[in-house]
Design a protein that fits this description.
about 200 residues; four-stranded antiparallel sheet; about 45% helix; alpha+beta; 7 helices
Length: about 200
């Protein structure tokens, strides 16, 4: 069943200006991609194609939004002006003509069929953690622990450094350094207790 009664209820519960816009967008999706599935995800109508996310729409107090899942690969509308790619949709006049909108929806579905995945921005690597002085001194006295600590991946070293650095009292910091060196000597990561649960 391509039409979900929850989407009907969503449209009916929105402001009067939004209902015709939402109904038009829904009709364009089904006209362009007859097999599109619909449902509610993240509290808004969501369309998928062959089990993969295609687009979503939402109504707010004074505008509607519509957006494609693979938005970076599509040259559409007013990216960044509001949620979605068509900016603040306040009337049907803010949207492209039927044929143009359906062509964009077909293009988005074709990207899914071609296996194009949503582009995610690359994260900048985190800088190497600053080793607290107490830990550095303790590692300097223990060759095995020092070698193991150096061989750990950066994230693992960071966990130990942050755990020790966040201690507020000197006695807590000293206890954590002692525990850390003991665990590191054994090759254990900071959260070793939870790794094989």
């Amino acid at each position: 069943m391509p039409f979900d009664p929850r989407v009907d209820a969503y449209i009916e519960s929105r402001a009067e200006f939004a209902r015709p816009i939402l109904a038009w967008l829904r009709a364009r999706v089904h006209a362009a991609v007859p097999g599109a599935e619909e449902g509610i995800k993240w509290s808004m109508p969501f369309f998928s194609h062959n089990g993969r996310p295609l687009a979503n729409m939402a109504a707010f107090k004074a505008h509607v939004s519509f957006g494609f899942w693979n938005r970076q690969e599509l040259a559409t509308g007013k990216e960044g002006e509001a949620m979605g790619q068509f900016g603040r949709i306040e009337s049907l006049g803010n949207l492209p003509a039927d044929a143009e909108m359906e062509a964009q929806i077909r293009e988005a579905a074709a990207l899914l069929d071609a296996g194009v995945k949503r582009a995610r921005p690359a994260r900048a690597p985190k800088p190497e953690a600053e080793v607290p002085l107490e830990l550095a001194e303790a590692l300097a006295k223990d060759e095995a622990a020092s070698a193991t600590f150096t061989a750990f991946p950066p994230g693992c070293r960071r966990e130990y450094c942050e755990w020790i650095a966040e201690a507020k009292r000197p006695e807590t910091r000293a206890r954590r350094v002692e525990e850390a060196v003991s665990w590191i000597r054994e090759g254990k990561r900071r959260n070793w207790k939870y790794e094989n649960c």
